[in-house]
Amino acid sequence: MKFGKRLQPDRGKINMNDEYEVKYWTHELGITRSKLQHLIDKVGNSAAAVRKELSR
Fold first, then answer.
1. What pTM value is reported for the model?
2. Rounded distance between C-alpha atoms, residue 43 and residue 24, angstroms
3. What is the number of domains present in the chain?
4. In whole angstroms, what is the distance from residue 56 CA to residue 11 CA?
5. Residue 26: φ, ψ to 5°
6. Domain membership flag for residue 50
7. 46 in any annotated domain
8. Do residues 12 and 34 make contact, with C-beta atoms less than 8 angstroms apart?
9. Is residue 2 part of a domain?
10. What pLDDT, on the 0 to 100 scale, is given for residue 39?
11. How far apart are CA 6 and CA 20, in angstroms?
12. Does residue 1 belong to any structural domain of this protein?
């Protein structure tokens, strides 16, 4: 999936206010936007915390 001409997002944090990052992370994690938002609401915007919660 191509996201356009931008640098990679900060892989340590997930910014739900940046559509490019939302597309990147939903594709990277294989989840929907609403699932991503739910995980961030639960554990914060740390990519590591989201990945850990997703693996539960």
1. 0.81
2. 19
3. 1
4. 20
5. -65, -40
6. yes
7. yes
8. no
9. no
10. 98
11. 9
12. no
